[in-house]
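User: Please fill in residues for this 76-position structure.
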């Protein structure tokens, strides 16, 4: 992520059991000092609550949202 200077990271989850891992991953991104990297999470059960819990910046339940968010971020 650091190496490629990625502005956006997307994560997909199917299982509620994977929520903690997603939270830990986002924490690791922040702890690595990558505070400007936006994190978008998605998957069937993901909603605003899950987004808040995991510390993500955006959530989506369809691929269209990923495109919308990416366009927003790349537009500055
Ligand atoms: C296929 C499937 C499996 C397959 C997976 C095959 C594979 N290699 O991927 C197999 C049979 C292996 C499987 C196993 C299990 N499964 Co299963 N499985 C499913 C099923 C039927 C479909 C999932 C799927 O692939 N959908 C197709 C994709 C394209 O859809 P999607 O994931 O929703 O993604 C869309 C959107 O959500 C969005 N999206 C997805 N990611 C992202 C990311 C971003 C950033 C954005 C913006 C959008 C986005 O875009 C996609 C396109 O529209 C679901 C039920 C369901 N209808 O969801 C259960 C389901 C996910 N499974 C479930 C369970 C419990 C399991 C097992 C734990 C069962 C067990 N006891 O062993 C295991 C876990 C295995 C594991 N280690 O992960 C539960 C999860 C419940 C929960 N809340 O956690 C579900 C919901 C079924 C249920 N109702 O109980 N499973």
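Assistant: Residues filled in for all 76 positions:
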């Amino acid at each position: 992520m650091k190496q490629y200077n990625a502005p956006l990271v997307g994560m997909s989850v199917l299982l509620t059991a994977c929520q903690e891992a997603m939270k830990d991953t986002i924490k690791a991104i922040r702890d690595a000092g990558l505070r400007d990297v936006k994190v978008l999470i998605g998957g069937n059960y993901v909603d605003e609550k899950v987004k808040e819990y995991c510390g993500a910046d955006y959530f989506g339940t369809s691929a269209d949202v990923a495109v919308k968010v990416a366009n927003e971020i790349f537009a500055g």
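For context: The mean pLDDT is 92.
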